[in-house]
Amino acid sequence: MIKSLTLTNFRNHIAARITTAGRRNIIITGPNGAGKTAIIEAVSMLSGDRGMRGAPMTDIARFDGDGGFSVFAELNDESVVCVYFNSGDTNRHAKIDGDNTPLSDLARKLRIVWLTPREDRIFIDGATERRAFFDRLAASFDSAHSGRIARHTKLMTERAGALKIGADSNWLDALDEQIAATATAIAAARIQYAGELNFMMENAAVSVDGLIESMIIQQNAAVAEREYMAYLKSNRCLTNDKMVIDGVNKSDFGVFNNKLNLPVALTSTGQQKTTLIELILAHAKLIYTKTGARPIILLDEAAAHLDSNARRNLFEQLGRVNAQVWATGLNSDVFQDIDDATFVACVDGKINNIL
User: Fold this and answer.
1) In sequence order, what are the residues at sequence separation of 6 or more whose Cβ sits closer than 8 angstroms to the Cβ of residue 148?
2) Averaged pLDDT score across all residues of the chain
3) 222 and 103 in contact (C-beta within 8 Å)?
4) pLDDT of the residue at 355
5) How far is CA 169 from each of CA 2, 163, 166, 176, 179, rounded to the nearest angstrom?
6) Cα 81–Cα 85–Cα 87 angle in degrees, nearest 5
7) pLDDT digits (tens, 9 = 90+) for 182-217
8) How far apart are alpha carbons 315 and 327 in whole angstroms?
9) SS3 letters for the chain?
10) What interhelical angle do 169-200 and 127-138 show, nearest 10?
11) What pLDDT score was predicted for residue 354?
């Protein structure tokens, strides 16, 4: 868990420091535009990812600052982690205990998962958004998952280019072999993650539906890879100068509300938010069960779309999860029922830490 967080020139924060006193819940409140979301975005950067908003580094640096920023955290185990960006750099840098380290190594120290208002529409948006959301979660347990997805995208682009120039069959065979192997590994990771997540969920169930995922479920990964390679080989035509191929790039994740006996997409906005939070809490439980690490959960506008009963249920569930929670909201009164909390009042990029 994080004991203290220090921001320098991050978004609208010139310099800010939050002390958590080792508490499990850090509640950040204040008006719109005060810098609440910036604080938990800073925490998300400590995962080694691009952060929960995925913004360019130059946009994160304070507008009238020196062009750089830093996020520094002291952890409960007395270690320190830091992410920083200097003006003119092309990427962020990371340090653990003062030593330079690859960004990917930060995941060894902090397991971070987040929900923002953007994810509130995840069940009714298109399959592309859902795939990206669930693939990000799955990558928490399979460090190669994100790399496989990036490699698959690159290979598919290369295949489309090869078809356009009329490449010979040897070239296409080699590409299809790599695509089939990569796609099968992606599909297998999705199936495994969905199954493990469902073990932790009580009121909903996650499924993954796609050509290769179905092949694996019905047979096995080795057979699925061979059959998908044959599918690729038999589909080497362009339609209106475009490659139309089914596969992991078309798969979708479904979530079913077991209590209401309905797909979550057909439930109310509040019920969708409740399911989404249950999913993230189940993910946090899975992290702790599989790794022994206490994850950090970031909830931006945590109580949005939730009535008083749903909020009470949320706080009860948070109390049962072995994690540290950073949550934002407009009004601190909404969080009055939450225990073991540090409250942070945020106004105009300045914070008042109330222990």
Assistant:
1) 182, 185, 186, 189
2) 90
3) no
4) 52
5) 55, 10, 9, 10, 15
6) 160
7) 999 999 999 999 999 999 998 999 999 999 999 999
8) 11
9) CEEEEEEEEECCEEEEEEECCCCCEEEEECCCCCCHHHHHHHHHHCCCCCCCCCCCHHHHECCCCCCCEEEEEEECCCCEEEEEECCCCCCCEEEECCEEECHHHHHHCCCEEEECHHHHHCCCCCHHHHHHHHHHHHCCCCCCHHHHHHHHHHHHHHHHHHHHCCCCHHHHHHHHHHHHHHHHHHHHHHHHHHHHHHHHCCCEEEEEECHHHHHHHHCCHHHHHHHHHHHHHCCCCEECCEECCCCCCCCEEEEEECCCCEEHHHCCHHHHHHHHHHHHHHHHHHHHHHHCCCCEEEECCCCCCCCHHHHHHHHHHHHHCCCEEEEEECCHHHHCCCCCEEEEEEECCEEEEEC
10) 70
11) 60
**What distance in Å separates the CA atoms of residue 218 and residue 220, rounded to the nearest whole number?**
7
Cα–Cα dist 303/311, whole Å: 6
* pLDDT per position as a tens digit, 223-242: 999 999 999 999 999 888 88
Distance CA 123, CA 206 (A): 11
| Alpha-carbon dihedral angle through residues 90, 95, 98, 99, given to the nearest 10 degrees | -90
Q: How many CB atoms lie within 10 A of CB 130?
A: 21
Read off the tokens for 61: 């640096």
